[in-house]
Each structure stands twice: as structure tokens, then as C-alpha cells.
Design a protein that fits this description.
single chain, 5-stranded antiparallel β-sheet, alpha+beta
Amino acid sequence: MDYSTLWIFSCLTYNLVDSQKRNKLEFKSKKCIFIGFTKGVKRFRLWDPEKRSAFTSRDVIFDEKSMLQEESETEDKAQGGASDTQEKKVEFSESPKRPEGSEKDFSDQMEMNRRLIKSNLDR
């Protein structure tokens, strides 16, 4: 038995839309839900939630990881251990501290800029 073609039922899939059925500005794939296999042919049964219809396709990309992530997030919320909903306290210092001598360096730089601007205006 070949296990490489087994996928999780009801996982999110992306079906390739044929280039003759779309124009240049439309998406190349469509979000669908995997609902099963077809007999005798290597095609997958998909559910299109927008059109509310089932169809078969062999050009499919499966996104099982997003489904597994959603399940782990719902389990965290059910257990009450969601870390992103907890409040965190942040303390701010009163004012940023400058290194010693930086004011002198800054005033020297400003004086040099003034001289440069004045010399350019005098030309």
C-alpha cells in the first residue's frame, strides 16, 4: 500500500485553476476542502465553499500544517493557557541617558554644519 497519497480529511487545499478558465488578474489557485479520493484514478475530491459544490482534481496542494496549528491553538484556549492573551507590564525609564561628552560632540557637529552652509551660501 502506498501511504504517500494519504491526506487528512477536511484539511485546507489549494486547487490549481486552469489557465484557460482564468484571466491574467485572477488567482492561480482556489481554496478548497479535501473530502476524499476517487476510485481507479489518482484524483482528489474537493469541496469549493464559494460555489458550494464538489469536484475532482489532481492539481492540488495540501496545507495540513495550518489545520494542525488551528487545532493546537483551540486546545490552548480550552485549557486557558493562551500566552498571547495574558497582560504584561512594561516599565519605562524617565528619560534616555546620553553618554558623557555627547553634547559637546553634538555642538561641534552643529558648528561645523553651520560653517559649511555659510561657505556654500557665500559662493
